[in-house]
Amino acid sequence: PDESFLIFSSPRSPAPAKTSDLFIVFRTPAGWSAPIDLREVVSDKVFGVEARLSPDLKTLYFSNQINKDGIKVPKENYIWQVDISSLLKAHGL
Predict the structure, then answer these.
(1) Residue 26: how many CB atoms within 10 A of its CB?
(2) CB 48 within 8 Å of CB 9
(3) Which of 12, 13, 75 is nearest to 64 (CA)?
(4) Residues 6+ positions from 13 with CB-CB distance below 8 Å
(5) pLDDT digits over 6-30, tens only?
């Protein structure tokens, strides 16, 4: 809500081919920071699309095609959640 950070999905590197990773950028005095791949800093299971935040901004919800057993199901979408509070705290938020 205060525009101090933004989370977005993108197929940009280092996302594997035909996959969108979730990235976070932080507002700095000079503009937006370089994108940080959440798969690399939070968990290798954090990737996909449709990123949404909980009202307290501590939980990130997203969807991808990986089921609870770790199997990709191309015609299905699964909703996942992960705590990002420590990442935000590390960036002074």
Answers:
(1) 17
(2) yes
(3) 75
(4) none
(5) 999 999 999 888 889 999 999 999 9
Closest to 65 measured CA to CA, from 45, 90, 88? 45
How many residues would you count in the chain? 93
Map 13-42 to HEC letters: CCCCCCCCEEEEEEEECCEECCCEEHHHHC
Number of H helices, E strands in the chain: 2, 7
3-state SS class at 90: helix
What the block records as the tokens of 60 is 């990130």
Write down the pLDDT at residue 17: 86
- Is 47:19 a contact under the CB 8 Å cutoff? yes
Name residues whose C-beta falls within 8 Å of residue 34's C-beta, 6 or more positions apart in sequence.
25
Structure tokens at 84: 């990002």
Amino acid identity for residue 13 in this structure: S
